[in-house]
C-alpha cells in the first residue's frame, strides 16, 4: 500500500503456475474493485504511477535457474531473444538488480494493448522455450565434462558445510552449483526446498530480521555460515 502505486497486489506460486496465480489474484482484484474507485480510462486502461504499467497494470514473472546456459555461454543469446519477443529478464531480486546465482526473472514488458490472458500465455510460452534450452545445455555439459561438474558441485558442498565466514555473493554462487547438481541427479537425496529457502534467508536484511538487530558485515558473514551449516545438515 502507498509505494510506487497506491495499491499493488502480488501472489507467488512455486513451479510454472502462472494461470493459477493469476486466477487467484484476479478474484481478489475484482472484489477490491467493487469497493474502490480505481483510476481507469477506456482508451488506456488502468492508470499507474509509471506509464509503462498502464493498461492491465499486470506484471507476470517466472524465476528461472539457468546455470547451464551461463556455463556454455549461450545466456546472452537467450536474453537477446527474450527481449525481441517483448519480454525482459531481471535479476534474482527483481527490477533494477543483476542476475546472481544464475537466477533470472522473466516477465512481460508491455501491459498496454494486451489482455491479461495474452500476457500470461506469452510469458508461459517463452518460459517453456527457455527451460528446454536449459535442459539441452545441461545434457551438453554432462557429455562434455562430467568430472569437472562433479568437482565443482563437490567443492561447493564442502565449502558451504565447512565455512565459518561467507559472503552473500559467494553463497549464491555455491548454492547455484548445488542446485545444478541436484538437477543433474549428482546429489541423490538432497532436499531442494531447503536450498530454495537459503537463497532468501542468507540476504543481509533477512539475517538482521532473524537476529532482531543491525549486524556488522563480519557478523552477517558469520551468522550466514552458521545458518547454512545448520540447514544443509538436514538436506539428506
Automatic annotation (TrEMBL):
GO cellular component: extracellular space
GO process annotations (BP): phosphocreatine biosynthetic process
Binding site residues for ATP: 8, 59-63, 90-95
Domain Phosphagen kinase C-terminal: residue ranges: 1-137
Keyword Electron transport attributed: no
Keywords carried by this UniProt record: ATP-binding, Kinase, Nucleotide-binding, Transferase
A Gene Ontology molecular function term of the record: creatine kinase activity
Top-level taxonomic group: Bacteria
InterPro entries per the UniProt record, alphabetical: Arg_Kinase, ATP-guanido_PTrfase, ATP-guanido_PTrfase_cat, Gln_synth/guanido_kin_cat_dom
Signal peptide: none
Membrane listed as a keyword: no
PANTHER family, per the entry: ARGININE KINASE 1-RELATED, ARGININE OR CREATINE KINASE
Protein family: Belongs to the ATP:guanido phosphotransferase family.
Protein name: ATP--guanido phosphotransferase
Native source organism of the sequence: Aerophobetes bacterium
